[in-house]
Amino acid sequence: MGHFDPYDDNGGTVAAIAGQDYVLIASDSRLSTGSTILSRFTPKIYPLSKVTVFACAGFHGDVLTLVKQLEIRMKLYVHEHGEEMSTKAMMALLLPTLYGRRFFPYYVRPIVAGLDREGRGLVASYDPIGTPEFFDYVIQGSAENLVHPFLNNQIGAKKTLSDVPIQAPPELTLEKAVKLLKDSFLAAAERDVYTGDTVTLMAITAKGTETTEYQLRRD
Amino acid sequence: MAKRYDINSALLRDLPLINGSHSSAVGQPKAHTQSPSVSGTAVIGVAFKGGIVLAADTVGSYGTLCKLRTIPRLLRVNKSTVLAMSGDYADFQYIEQLIAKKTMQDFCSDDGYEWTPKSLHSWLTRILYNARSKFDPLWNSYVVGGLEDGVPYLGGLTMLGISYTAPYMATGFGRFIAQPFLADQLEKNPEMDEAAAREVAIHSLRLLYYRNRESSNKYQLTVVTKDGSVLEPIKEFEGVWDTALMIRGYD
Amino acid sequence: MNPFSYNGGVCVAMKGDKCVAIASDHRLGAGRLTVGTDFPKVFEMGPALYLGLPGLTSDSLTVVNKLKFRVNLYELSENRKIKPHSFKAMLEHFLYEKRFGGYFIAPVIAGLDPDTDEPFVTAMDMLGAGETNEPFAVAGTAEESLLGLCEALWEPNLKPDDLFETISQVILNAVDFDCLAGAGATVHVIEKDKVTTRTIKTRMD
């Protein structure tokens, strides 16, 4: 008789960069279990409102459930307040949502990204039980160890010995950010078997949302 | 870390995928059903231009025993929605009952609402996810197919509540045997028509028949197009075993 | 405790245009305790041949000595300098001799061919399974970080100065993410008739 394991790891990588007047979110589209690919067409990015998106790697069953939970809360908020929940409010909401399952955790690596009321970019990442971090650039998932040092190198002003807080410099434009995340995912797909197929980049500015896709390695 | 399951292959099921340290049931208060008994193996799903086709053989295996030879593993839900199952047959029958009940409730509401492939896929995901969260999993993976607002929809679902969509899919042993073939065929012929999709689906079953001891040459198809859904009668294909003569060392 | 990460440390090597570079960090640890901050893991095996040996330090030092002995013997009997290719083969055989109960090391080789000046870079596992067709080689406790950085930052035909900058950025940013490596780094840039060795400062935490 067996011991049932309710968890699985479906791989995948998500990343986000917050700028002065934009936020950029990226995800690959591979969904795998063990050494087999379940789907090559599943980007792990989920828009929650006009200015807020959720992106999440980890166990896809939990990811889907969490997304549903957040969508429901967003809907209830709209009915009650007549406007969409702000990005900051969604970031605050995710913490108790994750911690509520402290003793049977959602096995997820989430990112919330969006614009604040002034149109500035905001990014937050969480561990599976809800500990938040508010960095201007973030990467979660199976290739985070490969890519995080690269983003640190290119954005985080870590080229010197100074301990500059991890913030995106004002001169980091959306075009540069797109280039960085594209390179990051190309590098990740090169060496991480759980990252690949396509990368979806979603750029949110005051003008609206723009989504682009690029091919990655499919092996 | 999470362990990997292939729920549909007795071959893999016999492997010690179960952690030895937990295997003792002595002194354990309660054991839910935590392994399948009578089970179906791979199913195939292919989306084509204007519809989808699902295919499955008709065996119900009991471990390595071919216990039931002619059981349907496809379900026609309504004119736009069909379902294919692999894994535990009893759990599938329970799901069939749940679907029938919900269908009846919808019918009685008389508001014109009925299952669509997307809604069935989403609902099934919740059922399976909730079961796994209670540590009492429904030991199935499913392929949901049909037309969603006239657009072909193909959704996959595993016993842990992992759901996804793709233009082609296979469960269980089919992930290894049929998926590569399906990917290749759809790459060569992205605008596949119904006839081609049927052929591809049947050939996938044929490949499985040759290499998967749990499968058989008795199979069933279901097709959804704008004209509605059809659950076809059970058919058989002939195996071609000429190549078997070239295998040496077992005679 | 994992012997590969007990002492901590990383090594990376990269090909350039008629040059090659190899770098390692300076930390020597005992588990989570840092016991030394002046311990590079790259060893000179010839005028244009360097060997990086992150892993269990006692094994690294043993391997260096045993290997240097074999290299000396080879060069005496052949009366010529050993080529990086031959050195790689020698190391592979040496490691595989201990197939059951090997040295807990992750070797990286960087060198220039003494005849053709062709850059040579390789990494192998503790049993001597190596890969030679890559433009860079990484090993140690920050292997993934190094690999990701190399993949993103490296480009073909880097001149010695650019190669130095690239490999320095790679090792600097990789060890900043690794608690078991860091405390400065040493970079050797190997050219035809010259080896430039530089020490770079990193965060010391």
Description:
The complex is a heterotrimer of chains A (219), B (251) and C (205). Chain A is of the alpha+beta class and 219 residues long. In chain A, 29% of the residues lie in helices and 31% in strands. Chain A has a single domain, classed as Aminohydrolase, N-terminal nucleophile (Ntn) domain (Glutamine Phosphoribosylpyrophosphate, subunit 1, domain 1, 4-Layer Sandwich), CATH 3.60.20.10. In chain B, strands 1, 4, 5, 6, 7, 8, 9 and 10 form an eight-stranded antiparallel β-sheet that branches. In chain B, strands 2, 3, 11, 12, 13 and 14 form a six-stranded antiparallel β-sheet that branches. The longest helix of chain B has 21 residues, at 89-109. Chain B is of the alpha+beta class and 251 residues long. Chain B has a single domain (36-227), classed as Glutamine Phosphoribosylpyrophosphate, subunit 1, domain 1. Residues 1-7 and 9-24 of chain B have low confidence and may be disordered. In chain B, helix 4 (174-188) runs antiparallel to helix 5 (194-211). Chain C is 32% helix and 29% strand. Chain C has helices at 3-6, 57-78, 84-96, 143-153, 160-175, and strands at 10-15, 20-25, 28-30, 33-36, 42-46, 49-52, 108-112, 119-124, 130-131, 136-140, 185-191, 194-200. A five-stranded antiparallel β-sheet of chain C has the order 10-1-2-11-12, covered by helices on one side. In chain C, strands 5-6-7-8-9 form a five-stranded antiparallel β-sheet, covered by helices on one side. Chain C has a two-stranded antiparallel sheet with strand order 3-4. Chains in contact: A-B, A-C. Chain B: InterPro entries: Ntn_hydrolases_N, Proteasome_beta4, Proteasome_bsu_CS, Proteasome_sua/b, Proteasome_suB-type. Chain B: Belongs to the peptidase T1B family. Chain B: It is found in: Cytoplasm; Nucleus.
